[in-house]
# Entry
Amino acid sequence: MDIKTNLAYIQENIRKACEKTNRDLSEITIIGVTKYVTIERTIEAMEAGVHHFGENRAEGLLEKYNHIDQPAKWHFIGTLQTRKVKDIIDKVEAIHSLDRESLAKQINNRANRVIDCFVQVNVSEEESKHGLAVADVIPFVELLAAYENIRVVGLMTMAPHVSDEEVLRKTFKDLAQLRDVIMTKNYAHAPCKYLSMGMSNDYEIAVEEGATHIRVGSKLVEE
Ligand SMILES: *Cc1c(COP(=O)(O)O)cnc(C)c1O
# Structure
């Protein structure tokens, strides 16, 4: 499928999910995850109207950033090694995978502006996943106040790889609830308005549960 067709289909599904839950379509940002595809295919996505892109490796992000002239917003969505922070820090719109203090320290030291970050939460507490356990998130957000170049704009999660809708919905609901608690605290460094959740197989459910940033790869860009 060409990307224009895929994008129209995804947008239509988002529109329906918004309608169902009385949400405003303009609250939702589609991040096209291009980690699987070439520069050419990424450019095709841009021309189809995708403005935000997600990469999960520093090398992948740099390769595309350096070879693509069109303006685009790059999101780092994968596990970030501290030694790679310096390579991507001045190129990203946001980092979606902040999950430890050593990484916060490195981002803070390498940045020469405030960096928008999502704290990654392992809601389902699967061993294989990165991210903080729910109970550790608020203490972590609180300690981030010491890092002047970090703004916590939201929370991010990856749902378990299952097809059971109730499990997925519960994961997204739990993340939204945690976000709500953090918002009531009115932390200056952590407005925490956003929810980065939902991928190719579960983005409609994520939107119904309040996602503001969905990260869609295979159903958007894969051939
Ligand atoms: C690969 C990836 C995605 C996109 O996954 P799809 O299922 O292909 O849509 C989203 N988020 C993260 C963190 C990823 O690594």
